[in-house]
Write a structure and sequence with these properties.
Largest sheet: none
Helix content: over 70%
Number of helices: 5
Shape: rod-shaped
Order of helices and strands: HHHHH
Radius of gyration: 28 Å
Number of strands: 0
Keywords: Membrane, Transmembrane, Transmembrane helix
Distance between the termini: 98 Å
Structural class: mainly alpha
Protein name: DUF4760 domain-containing protein
Length: 173
């Protein structure tokens, strides 16, 4: 074979190899990009779905406390409240990419789960549940909108401190 023919064959073969590697690399990059987009879409859908469950449970808790204040709540309202809080907390825990939300909501859930430490008064208990659930609702709504999470109110922080002190005393006794 002549040199020019060999150079042409080698160049053609080299070009084919480079072209096929480029095509494979491009296909891999495209597949990777699609996989990331699919995961992001699944995460967004899971966040919306779980967020909706948590919002509904917090809203139901708020309605329950309204019934307690009006005197129309069932006798087992505390068990109902505990169940609503549990469901909301579980829904929050499965929201992906939500460390800050889970950390913020942990304060509200602690208050909602230990509200009885502020006293046995029905009014004080319902005020604690209402405040914590309303602020939790607002924090979750802000997260789902993509807004910055709101800070805890002074009212809630004072309430949380009272609960923590009483809780620690109870643990120590």
């Amino acid at each position: 074979m002549q040199t020019e023919t060999l150079v042409g064959l080698i160049s053609g073969l080299g070009g084919a190899v480079i072209g096929s590697m480029g095509a494979l690399g491009g296909a891999w990059l495209q597949q990777r990009s699609q996989a990331k987009n699919s995961k992001r879409e699944r995460d967004e859908q899971r966040a919306l779905s779980s967020g909706e469950v948590a919002l509904n449970e917090l809203l139901r808790l708020n309605q329950l406390t309204d019934a307690v204040v009006r005197g129309t709540a069932e006798e087992n309202w505390k068990e109902q409240a505990a169940e609503l809080v549990r469901h909301a907390e579980i829904a929050i825990r499965v929201i992906p990419n939500s460390f800050d939300l889970r950390e913020t909501m942990a304060h509200y859930f602690f208050a909602m789960q230990h509200y009885h430490f502020v006293g046995n008064s029905g009014a004080l208990a319902t005020m604690t549940l209402r405040t914590a659930s309303a602020e939790g609702f607002n924090a979750l709504a802000a997260f789902l909108r993509g807004d910055e999470l709101p800070k805890h109110s002074e009212t809630f922080l004072a309430m949380e401190r009272r609960i923590q002190v009483a809780y620690m005393r109870d643990l120590a006794s």
